[in-house]
Design brief:
Layout (H helix, E strand, L loop, with lengths): L11 E5 L2 H7 L1 H10 L3 E4 L14 E4 L2 H6 L2 H16 L4 E3 L2 H8 L1 H9 L8 E2 L3 E4 L4 H11 L5 E5 L10 E5 L12 E5 L6 E8 L2 E8 L14 E4 H4 L24 H15 L3 E8 L6 E8 L9 H26 L7 H14 L3
Parallel strand pairs: 1-2, 1-3, 3-4, 5-14
Antiparallel strand pairs: 6-9, 7-8, 7-9, 8-12, 10-11, 10-13, 13-14
Catalytic activity: 1D-myo-inositol 3,4,5,6-tetrakisphosphate + ATP = 1D-myo-inositol 1,3,4,5,6-pentakisphosphate + ADP + H(+)
Organism: Aphis gossypii (Cotton aphid)
InterPro entries: Inositol_tetrakis-P_1-kinase, InsP(3)kin_ATP-grasp, ITPK1_N
């Protein structure tokens, strides 16, 4: 057996996230939880070869900002990490970099949702189209062909890791199409009485929290100007944005979230995305009660998630056990063990979707 194929000799979780993120999550406490379960938590030094820092049983990361940067230094860092993963296939990665890349691209993410079976239970992603040109006439034609209706939300292509990923616009009419800033994704706006449901997922555990959202908007044939906003600011728990205040003539009562649908969303997306740590933004359409997935993020903030560290270490332990059992089975069967069966299925699903984008 090659030295690189041996199981890690120590129970070390190598992790990386920004200092800001680790402070917000009080990451020191997670180190204590890890020790209670026989793991040592070690922060990765991305300036040094990982070979000199291991061996690792698990690599846990939030590398979205580095992946999104895509400059020369960032590419070198990611290349080193991917080479380490290739050299040590028994190390569990939470989450696979290919899966994270998919979620960084809103257009690909919406296509993943579109290609699941969730529509069978009235869970959908609103009609969308990519906007790559500044040609207004061309873009209006693309919008019509894709079935994107006014008003629609114009969102940056990159969903996380940049200073502009939350800068969005509400476009009300054809005149406003000139305000689209490519590359971006245009997505039909769904009226939902200013209530956003954030679904936080940690492995097999999930928690739903309610947040403020945009009020109801309607198509306008007049000269109503485009509204620009920061989606992160609008949906904060303590937000008092005027954009979240319903008009006096509208009822403040929103449609209720369906817990059975939430369970199906987690089960389905976890399989298609091959992700353990992600968040789903859901709105419930007025009148129809259909559930619309409007965004998915890798490793969200987890605000309001009870016992997050307990659920996270449980996720690590269960995913590692699944990975070890799956790879052991394929080794005994004589199959290639570079990826587990679930990983191969999920990667095949993603590849079949991404090849058309």
């Amino acid at each position: 057996m090659d030295e690189n194929d041996k199981a890690p000799s120590s129970m070390v979780i190598g992790y990386w996230m920004s200092d800001r993120k680790s402070q917000k999550l009080n990451w020191i406490e997670f180190g204590k939880v890890c020790r209670q379960h026989g793991y040592e938590l070690v922060k990765l030094d991305l300036e040094r070869p990982l070979e000199d820092q291991g061996p690792f049983a698990v690599i846990l990361h939030k590398l979205t900002e580095i992946i999104a940067r895509n400059d020369e230094k960032a590419i070198q860092i990611i290349d080193r990490i991917e080479q380490y993963i290739k050299n040590h296939p028994k190390v569990l990665i939470i989450d696979p970099l290919d899966s994270v890349r998919t979620l960084l691209d809103r257009y690909k993410t919406y296509n993943v949702v579109l290609n699941t079976t969730l529509n069978n239970i009235d869970v959908f992603t609103p009609t969308f189209v990519e906007i790559l040109s500044t040609n207004v006439k061309e873009n209006i034609k693309k919008l019509k062909n894709a079935g994107v209706t006014f008003p629609f939300i114009c969102k940056p292509f990159v969903a996380q890791g940049t200073t502009y990923c939350h800068q969005m616009s509400v476009i009300f009419n054809e005149r406003g199409v000139a305000d689209c800033k490519p590359p971006c994704v245009a997505q039909s706006f769904i009226n939902h009485n200013a209530i956003l449901y954030k679904l936080y997922v940690v492995g097999d555990h999930y928690q739903m929290v309610e947040r403020p959202s945009l009020k109801n908007f309607y198509a306008s044939n007049d000269d109503r100007d485009t509204i620009t906003f920061d989606s992160h600011s609008v949906s904060k728990s303590d937000s008092s944005s005027e954009l979240s205040v319903l008009d006096p003539s509208e009822s403040a009562k929103g449609s209720s979230i369906d817990p059975i649908k939430l369970h199906s969303i987690v089960k389905t997306l976890g399989s298609y995305l091959n992700m353990s740590l992600y968040g789903v933004d859901i709105v419930v359409e007025n009148d129809t009660n259909r559930h619309a997935i409007i965004d998915i993020n890798a490793y969200p903030g987890y605000d309001g998630f009870p016992d997050f560290f307990g659920k996270l270490i449980d996720c690590v332990i269960s995913r590692r056990a699944q990975s070890v059992c799956s790879k052991a089975y394929f080794e005994d069967s004589g199959f290639d063990t570079s990826d587990s069966s679930d990983e191969k299925k999920s990667r095949a699903k993603l590849n079949s979707i991404n090849q058309y984008n």
